[in-house]
Write a structure and sequence with these properties.
This protein has about 300 residues and is mainly α. It is about 60% helix and about 5% strand.
Length: about 300
């Protein structure tokens, strides 16, 4: 599918917050290497865990950490789950190298990443499918395998030529690759990695799409299947917003994420009221593991808006 920028709508307040945070992050560059290294290690772990869990991997976050960092085999868990975790973490590392190398997104890059993600799992690792498939639970049937090469050529052309805001193009990159479904397996994990490759090339931090949001994730993807990319673009924008908050929290004391319980100590409002304003989107905040977090900077901006 082709889109003009005006075809895709993202909540104006959300987009403004994303752009403001991106500008503040750019001012801080170059980022301190040691802090950035630790930050990316944490995101690598969380991205691997959540991306695999969305696809049914049974490893917990802590188990994924043990597999990646200690090489531990978790008793009672399928060998495939261990291999997936190691592969996805390795693919994340390759993505970072590709960002540093400033290598453009291409069919070769996509196939190379797929080869790592499905190594030891899929015989056709790194190769486009040569048969037709159906996706269980989806109302959309992927295109014939005979059309994949042509569709992928158009896909790469559109990544290069479509005039879209970076967040909107990230949503396009993710959805279009899932829609084409060029591989027998691993299309979702590949799409999440390629989306992050694009975002990082544009100066954004990598995003983590969480298993807790799996139902919403699939809903907005299905809406995009019918030509409306706006809900999915908003879904991606929220993930980018959270990633930017997480980054800024690591580099700026005033932006450090703290719970609303702590924020309430600096505000003329209760934790319950601040939580309400966070849910309404009035207070710039993010929900992590069912707990709302914000920052002193966000509180100042909220109080300023009331004057």
């Amino acid at each position: 599918m082709k889109y003009a920028d005006t075809d895709i709508n993202i909540d104006k307040l959300l987009l403004k917050r994303v752009e403001d945070k991106k500008k503040r992050l750019d001012i801080l560059r170059p980022l301190p290497r040691d802090t950035l290294k630790k930050l990316l290690e944490d995101i690598r772990l969380r991205h691997t865990y959540h991306s695999d869990a969305i696809e049914g991997n049974t490893l917990t976050l802590q188990e994924t950490k043990l597999v990646l960092e200690e090489g531990v085999t978790i008793g009672g868990k399928p060998l495939k789950d261990h291999v997936e975790a190691k592969n996805d973490a390795e693919a994340f590392d390759l993505m970072i190298k590709l960002v540093h190398a400033k290598k453009p997104i291409s069919q070769d890059v996509i196939q190379e990443i797929h080869g790592i993600v499905t190594k030891g799992i899929l015989e056709e690792s790194g190769k486009y499918r040569t048969e037709n498939v159906r996706i269980i639970g989806s109302k959309t049937t992927p295109p014939s395998y005979s059309k994949i090469v042509k569709l992928m050529e158009e896909y790469i052309f559109n990544i290069r030529e479509l005039k879209l805001h970076s967040i909107k193009k990230a949503a396009f990159i993710h959805h279009e690759l899932v829609l084409i479904h060029p591989f027998l397996d691993g299309n979702g994990r590949i799409s999440r990695l390629i989306t992050n490759l694009y975002l990082m090339k544009k100066g954004y931090p990598p995003i983590v799409l969480k298993k807790e949001d799996r139902r919403k994730y699939y809903q907005v993807l299905q809406t995009a299947d019918h030509g409306d990319l706006s809900p999915f673009a908003n879904f991606i924008a929220k993930a980018v917003h959270e990633a930017l908050m997480y980054y800024l929290s690591s580099f700026v004391e005033d932006e450090r994420l703290i719970s609303l319980k702590e924020i309430a100590e600096f505000a003329p409002y209760s934790q319950e009221y601040l939580s309400l304003r966070a849910r309404q989107g009035k207070l710039d905040a993010v929900k992590i593991e069912n707990v709302w977090y914000s920052s002193k900077h966000a509180l100042k901006e909220y109080l300023k808006s009331l004057r």
